[in-house]
Automatic annotation (TrEMBL):
It is found in: Cell membrane. GO terms for molecular function: transmembrane transporter activity. Keywords: Cell membrane, Membrane, Transmembrane, Transmembrane helix. The keyword Transmembrane helix applies. The keyword Metal-binding does not apply. Its main location: membrane. The chain crosses the membrane at residues 6-30, 65-84, 91-113, 152-173, 204-223, 229-248, 255-272, 287-305. One of its GO terms (cellular component) is plasma membrane. It is a multi-pass membrane protein. This is Nucleoside ABC transporter membrane protein. It comes from Massilia yuzhufengensis.
């Protein structure tokens, strides 16, 4: 089964999706509370760099992940202070974080490691894949051995965490008191305030959760996928995650499906690069790399009119007197 390209595409899709799922779930919490989180890209970069740098220094991936969480949460709180407390322009705040982290991570990496703005190879400090019990015994069984060993098993713990987020986030948003308050703050903050809900505190909590989730996206990029940090290695993952969220109409299940869709096209991109295809022949690599971004434009153009965002999204809350 491993010889078929379809098998590689399926496995690659599963491994590509967590970067987008973590970021999209982070954006979901922020935007459901009424705060536009355009700074996902910057938080991914910051956590990717800090996670890789600290993991290399201590030769421990878990210390690196913890440091990445701290870095992402600090940025999330800065963004929350500007957007919620100071009632600043949320789009500008997010873009400022993205631009700042794109340059700052490169400069700091160059200062500490002197390797052209990247960190050294992590080696033993990378997270290893989990081999499920019975994988070897099932390996020779057609399809079942491949499915159990490479689709269900053979992934990092962060991959499993990403897919476990779906039921957890769904329950938290739709079946918990916090989720009810969160959605109320995003739809009608004045009504939530009149009911005794602290809009400010709820939005800060949502931004903190978004910071934690976004840090896993960065850690996955550097500690699991690449094994090092490279300048702008997120390559627009934050924006793709936002697109998946719009595609999913700010709902967890549909958002995850959007992330899988982008992960699938990323896997297809890798498979067809350098391959002579029937009729069209060999497609240039630069054209192949455009596929996820062209798809983003198509999705946004086709779905923006149908998507219904939280009514108070992007609007600073001013408490009624």
């Amino acid at each position: 089964m491993e010889d078929f390209q379809f098998a590689s595409i399926v496995v690659s899709t599963i491994r590509n999706a967590p970067v987008l799922i973590f970021a999209a779930m982070a954006g979901l919490f922020a935007e459901r509370s009424g705060v536009i989180d355009l700074g996902l890209e910057g938080k991914i970069l910051a956590s990717a760099f800090v996670s890789a740098g600290v993991a290399y220094s201590y030769q421990d991936p878990w210390i690196g992940i913890a440091a990445g969480i701290l870095a992402s949460c600090v940025l999330a709180m800065v963004q929350a202070f500007v957007s919620i407390t100071q009632k600043g322009n949320q789009l500008v705040a997010g873009m400022a974080i993205n631009i700042a982290m794109s340059g700052l991570t490169f400069v700091v990496a160059q200062y500490f490691f002197q390797q052209g703005g990247r960190t050294p190879e992590l080696g033993e400090a990378r997270l290893t894949d989990i081999v499920l019990p019975g994988t070897a015994a099932l390996a020779d069984i057609p399809f079942l051995g491949w499915f159990y060993g490479h689709v269900i098993g053979g992934h990092s713990i962060l991959v499993y965490l990403a897919f476990l987020l779906l039921p957890l986030v769904h329950w938290l948003l739709y079946h918990s008191r916090f989720g009810l308050r969160l959605r109320a703050c995003g739809e009608n903050p004045h009504a939530a305030d009149a009911a005794g809900v602290s809009v400010k505190q709820t939005r800060y909590t949502a931004m903190l959760i978004a910071g934690v989730l976004c840090s896993f996206s960065g850690a996955y990029l550097s500690i699991v996928q690449s094994g090092f940090f490279l300048r702008d290695m997120s390559a627009g993952a934050g924006y793709l995650a936002l697109t998946a969220m719009v595609f999913g109409n700010w709902r967890p299940l549909h958002t995850v499906l959007g992330c899988l869709m982008f992960g699938f096209f990323g896997a297809v991109q890798i498979q067809i690069e350098g391959v002579d295809l029937p009729v069209v022949g060999r497609i240039p690599g630069s054209l192949i790399q455009m596929i996820p971004y062209v798809l983003t434009v198509v999705v946004l153009a086709g779905l923006m009119a149908k998507s219904v965002a939280p009514k108070a999204l992007g609007k600073p809350f001013v408490k009624s007197r």
